[in-house]
Amino acid sequence: MLRLVSRPSSTGRLGKVVCSGAPHGGRRSIASTSARQADITLTVDGKEVTVPKVRSALIQACEAAGATIPRFCYHDRLAIAGNCRMCLVEVERSPKPVASCAMPAMPGSKVFTNTPLVHEAREGVMEFLLANHPLDCPICDQGGECDLQDQSMRYGSDRTRFHEITGKRAVENKDLGPLVKTSMNRCIQCTRCVRFANEVAGVEELGTTGRGNDLQIGMYVEKTMDSELSGNIIDLCPVGALTSKPYALHARPWELKNTESIDVMDAVGSNIRVDSRGVQVMRIQPRTNDEVNEEWITRRPFVAASWEEALQTIADGIASSGATGNEIQAVAGHLADTESLVALKDLINRLGSDNLALDQINGSAPPLHGVDVRSNYLFNSTIPGVEEADAILLVGTNPRHEAAVLNSRIRKSWLHTSLEVGLIGERTDTAYGYDYLGADSKALADFIAGKGAFAAKFKAAKRPLIIVGSALAEQPDGAAAYNALAKFVEKNKDSLITPEWNGFSVLHRIASRPAAYEIGFVPSKKAASTQPKFIYLLNADEVDPKSIPANAFVVYQGHHGDLGASLADVCLPAAAYTEKAMTWVNTEGRSQVGRAAVPPPGASREDWKIIRALSEVLGSPLPYDDVLSLRDRMWDISPTLVRYDVVERTSPEVAVAGLQTIAANTVSAKVSGKPFLKPISNFYQTDPISRASVTMAQCTRAFVKGEDYGFGEKGSEAAYA
Amino acid sequence: MSLLRSSKQAIFRWPLPACPTYTRRFSAETHNQPVRTGDAPQKETAQIAEVADTDVLTAEVISGAPVELRHRMVRIYQPARNTMQSGAGKSERWRIDWDVLLGAGRWENPLMGWASSADYMQGTRMSFRSKEDAMHFAEKQGWNYYVQPPPTKKIPPKNYSENFVYRPNTLRIMRTK
Amino acid sequence: MLVTSLLRRSAASTPSVFGRAFSNSCARHSDALFMHRDTEYNNPKIPFAFTGDNMKRAEEIISRYPPQYKKAAVIPLLDIGQRQNKGWTSISVMNYVAKLLEMAPMRVYEVATFYTMFNREPIGENFVQVCTTTPCMLRGSTEILNTVCSQLGGITPGATTNDGKFTVIEVECQGACSNAPMMVVNDDFYEDLTPATTKKVLEAFAKGQKPKPGPQSGRKTSENSAGLTSLTSKPYGPGEFCTPEFS
């Protein structure tokens, strides 16, 4: 491997550390603002470092100074427990080493992280940790990326002083569901998983039982941990006690090539790292919190004959079906990337059709909120902005299943601030408390009329936020609800829509949806009423077979050959999201570019290339040959599509105008009184990739249906592993 | 004009789309600017499109590297920390790597089942101590590159005593060990 | 040789009694595993609720804490529950306390498993805890323990007699070292034990009587058993040895 390390650059590590008034340089500096009067300065290993006075732990100050502190229990995103004692440091005039995570940073103190005392103390701690830790490393999945392994290289002893005749502690393995494999013998009781479950996931079932040497992590009673975020405890575990069940014994971390990409399982656009070996994706790691996905288990079930043949068949199909104009329909599925949406829209428009449908209920009708004003269909408050809200009204949505990462943010804010949450829609377990207002339009009307305690709280809130589920538009009363909400927001624009704050947010659950609205991938009113004769399904796997006319010619383009493929006359194998470097627009309107981790198999191609090739066969070639010129076309459509990683805000005036259009569009809506239903009843299988996954099927059986999914290690010797 | 210079200029003339996020080459003024976006397209084009007539001789001219290499964009980014571990080592460095080659770029060896690839850059990564170093290297090589800005990390200050702070209102969480 | 090793292997792979892979953790403790398994006598379906008296006491205890910190009452409430539930804390007791205090059940389990004085398995009518920590051991607690075990029909520490009247366990220091050796029966300390007095105490309990708690040797408290060696003279009263003005 070619490896090249160039000369050191101008800014060394010290330059970031020494307090010169602006601690901006350090990527990990804790203070995001410049040094304030209230900050405190202390010395770590002879370097001065400044941290905020309010409640900074010593370990954070050490880290800001560039000193590496070994730790097991401390985690940046969890509460401090102070139970592993690995982060001991020496503080001047302190008689004993202090645990730097549990010690506040004090002004003027002198801290040493690399003295003989510190080393000896950490060696002692490590010796105790290793006393009961099995010598499993060769068969342990964590091997190679294990904190205990790494730190024992530095602080561990090569032989033991413990000779207990009873042997090392043996702990029963626990059953944490189909995602998490447990080997509790390896547990060092850092309780990160317990704190994660308790704080972030809102699952209070996980805890510690017993005491001292016999402390165990578990749920005491025999049951399965049920959380959409449970996969994260695999990453949190500093040892191999919690490892990934689907990934178990498949690969070693040093064999993996990692590619940083974007998740498409929901519309949050979580950043992920795709770890692949050879031609297979082995695992998905979060770059932020996210649930684990098992793409690598599946095999593509179909391959088309040859490209020329297939494309010609489609051209013939169009001709023989006699479809013209709006009778040519394109349906965009959940996992369609932005590039292919643009290409398909251009192609269909060139064929004289405006019939661009979305793969959802009412998807073949123009959307209620229109697509002319971005703020009508985007998550305007932004995802980090949720933490600023002091009252949130959820309408027809369950963020726990539609955007689990967003939900954990709401929970975080709910825990640490006096945030109040109200819910209109189906009752659901959100992992935080909420005022239940009702399930239908009447509840919404009551809220708007200011009835009830929550309405009063919402009115008094400085940063109120309304989160509208994308499923609301699919409800019978969706139009009426949109009408009422738009009027309400407009009326209260002083608090809801200000230059700093936009409290009307639509939460999408489908990765491709914001991009589709962004490029106007919606049918015109006239097209929506046309009976299609030629249907092009782009990754569309949710289509209702009944909605497809019997004599229509159907083309399916996708990667997992799910429901859509079974309806199709022609299947075109496309690349899955781990196999293409494409643009995704998340629910905030933030466009992010994913990366291909592995090349697509066999004859599969990127979606937009297939469409481009098809356009050639159909005699109206699209004017872009490579992805860069396609992105130029995207720039023409909307510059935000290629301004990566930033969210462009809508000005308050435009946002208000947008709401007025919603109100005008839906003015004739009737209230039927039907309740708003939540769209996702089975969180674990919302898309074709998950449906094709064995593990997700087990998750469904275990968590949704409550069955025994047959992976429990009852009475097997596998528990020794 | 020397032969080298003219050949170099000939090579540099590839199509330049207006999309601003993708940069090809920097003029002398924007040398230290990472690729950024946000302005009107024509302005962006003016900023980055022109090939600087400098005396830098890109390596591709004489290195004998395959022509295809020049048409592939490299990505310059800071790799994210491995979430499996708490150590932040190696996350300060900047990495150059290549997007995978599409179109039959991979197959399994029918005899042994080993993974093979037609992509000669698929296993290559280079690490640099700074973004500028990486950009400098890519420029010297004559590669197109895209600089991915690192995500800002916001870790709030935290304290052990937060576990025990008295809360006057309803408890929303019961802390545990 | 091969045969024996094969035999051994097959023996080793026989499933354990519980049908689980591992069940021999924490064998050192009197308490059961730190893991609840439903049994006939201990499962969440068995109803439990405080009696009226206990409820009143529980409410009084809860009222000592701020309303949002009701959870602070978990230990006293578990204790009331254990007393009401024949001396042991079943899963129903824990769940009931959790519900009463609006806590997640796991938070109660954590407390109940942490403190060894919550018995999570049924015990006999009389709960005999023999201290075997160093001071008691030096004063002959081993003999006391053996006496207790043999007196109760040869049971081992941690076991309950067949008639269900006694459960014996070894415990760590109870803080009565000056009257070592000692044992605790139910809530009372029986100190200064000898094998003979131990038997007497247990016999009394077997008959359903309650012997007088405290030192069994005739001492009142922890005074010197051989009589006082100092302060033997009459203490001087007020005015003695003072100048006449003050006498």
UniProtKB/TrEMBL annotation, chain A:
Family annotation (InterPro entries): 2Fe-2S_ferredoxin-like_sf (IPR036010), 2Fe-2S_ferredoxin-type (IPR001041), Mopterin_OxRdtase (IPR006656), Mopterin_OxRdtase_4Fe-4S_dom (IPR006963), NADH_UbQ_OxRdtase_75kDa_su_CS (IPR000283), NADH_UbQ_OxRdtase_ferredoxin (IPR054351), NADH_UbQ_OxRdtase_Gsu_4Fe4S-bd (IPR019574), NDUFS1-like_C (IPR015405)
A Pfam family (short name) is NADH-G_4Fe-4S_3
| Cofactor(s) this protein requires | [4Fe-4S] cluster; [2Fe-2S] cluster
Q: Kindly provide the name given to this protein in its UniProt entry.
A: Ndufs1, NADH-ubiquinone oxidoreductase 75kD subunit (775)
Instruction: Please report the stretch or stretches of sequence annotated as the 2Fe-2S ferredoxin-type domain.
Output: 38-117
Per the database record, which ranges form the 4Fe-4S Mo/W bis-MGD-type domain?
Answer: 256-312
Q: Which GO terms describe its molecular function?
A: 4 iron, 4 sulfur cluster binding; metal ion binding; NADH dehydrogenase (ubiquinone) activity; oxidoreductase activity, acting on NAD(P)H
Recorded source organism is: Suillus subaureus
Automatic annotation (TrEMBL), chain B:
* Keywords in alphabetical order: Electron transport, Membrane, Mitochondrion, Mitochondrion inner membrane, Respiratory chain, Transit peptide, Transport
Instruction: Give the main localization category.
Output: mitochondrion
Would you tell me the Gene Ontology cellular component terms? mitochondrial inner membrane
Subcellular location, record wording:
Mitochondrion inner membrane
Tree of life domain: Eukaryota
**What GO terms in the biological process aspect are recorded for it?**
electron transport chain
Q: According to its UniProt entry, what is the function of this protein?
A: Accessory subunit of the mitochondrial membrane respiratory chain NADH dehydrogenase (Complex I), that is believed not to be involved in catalysis. Complex I functions in the transfer of electrons from NADH to the respiratory chain. The immediate electron acceptor for the enzyme is believed to be ubiquinone.
The family annotation for this protein states:
Belongs to the complex I NDUFS4 subunit family.
Q: What is this protein called?
A: NADH dehydrogenase [ubiquinone] iron-sulfur protein 4, mitochondrial
Automatic annotation (TrEMBL), chain C:
Q: Name one GO molecular function term.
A: 2 iron, 2 sulfur cluster binding
Where do Polar residues bias regions lie?
Answer: 223-233
Supply the name of the protein: Thioredoxin-like [2Fe-2S] ferredoxin-domain-containing protein
Cellular compartments per GO CC: catalytic complex; membrane protein complex; mitochondrial inner membrane
PROSITE patterns, from UniProt? COMPLEX1_24K
Segment Disordered: which positions?
Answer: 207-247
Q: Which CDD domains match?
A: TRX_Fd_NuoE (cd03064)
Q: Does the keyword DNA damage apply?
A: no
